[in-house]
Amino acid sequence: MRLHPSVWGVIVSVGSAASLIAAPLAPADPAAVSLTSTFSVTSPTEIPNDKLKPGSYSITVVDHLSDRIVLRVDDAKGKLHSTFLGVPNSGLSSGVAGPISWNLSSDHEGALRGFSFPGGGAVEFVYPKDQAVAIAKKSGGTVPAIDPASEGMVVKDNTLSKEDMAMVTLWTLTPTTVGPKDATQPAIQAARYQAPQTAQPAPPQEVAQNEPPAAPPAPAPQSLSVRRKPVLAKLPHTASNLPLILIGGLLSLFAAGVLSFSRRADDAA
């Protein structure tokens, strides 16, 4: 199975560009290497994200880059059991094709460390952190791991199927190794980057102090009442009576003249 073309656009945008655009790792002999191999287990055996029951299975190289390989394990009926990451590890190759197991302390259960493909070298499996630590405790070795808490933290894209989104998540994780004492480690290298949150300044604490009681507030200023003088009903009598006397005299002279003229007229008649 190859990735949908739109998946690569998401991978380049959310993953490590230097790693994800690297040239694919070419097998030693493409014509001789099978992308699917079969194997069987005789006891319960762990693989990343699952535990296989005794039976026959197939392992397929879904896709790969220079630093990582996506693998898929199906049972004999074609049922998908797990899709996970692997990393090239030529040191595991023993020249024999087939599964490579961890040497665990338990005789009844096992765990696959990797797989050697015919003519294509060995691939070491990358386990979720919890599984990796448990295997490391039993084997005493170091196990390639990714942080399962970060697997769901992928960019949502409605154009991708659920399977494609799972593939994008695998491509954007960065494997590292954990040992038997790494169980309490809060996170490993594969954890998604979280932008640090700016701490809010704490409010100032109030400290009780012995202070004198506050002075009572000053009384409000009272408005001053201003007594206004009443308006005079009439102007004060300050003028002289001389004009009136003069007018009265003139009127008297005028009246006397009229009477004198009337008498003369009567006498002449």
Characterization of the model:
With 269 residues, the chain is of the alpha+beta class. It has a domain at 5-178. The chain has five helices and twelve strands. The strands form two sheets. Strands 1, 2, 3, 4, 5, 6, 7, 8 and 9 form a nine-stranded mixed beta sheet that branches. The protein has a three-stranded mixed beta sheet with strand order 10-11-12, with helices on one face. A hairpin with a 4-residue loop joins strand 4 (55-64) and strand 5. Helix 1 (5-14) runs parallel beside helix 4. The chain starts with a helix and ends with a helix. Residues 1-33 and 186-196 have low confidence and may be disordered. Residues 192-212 have a biased composition (Low complexity). The chain crosses the membrane at residues 242-261. Keywords: Cell wall, Membrane, Peptidoglycan-anchor, Secreted, Signal, Transmembrane, Transmembrane helix.
Query: Which outline best applies?
Result: rod-shaped
Which spans of ≥5 residues are poorly predicted at pLDDT below 50? 1-33, 186-196
Proportion of residues in extended strands: 15-25%
Gyration radius, rounded: 55 Å
- Helix content estimate: 10-25%
Listing every helix as H and every strand as E from the N terminus to the C terminus, the arrangement reads HHEEEEEEEEEEHEHEH
N-end to C-end Cα span: 162 Å
Figure out the total of helices: 5
Structural class: alpha+beta
Task: Report the mean per-residue pLDDT as an integer.
Answer: 69
Total number of strands: 12
- Major sheet details: 9 strands, mixed
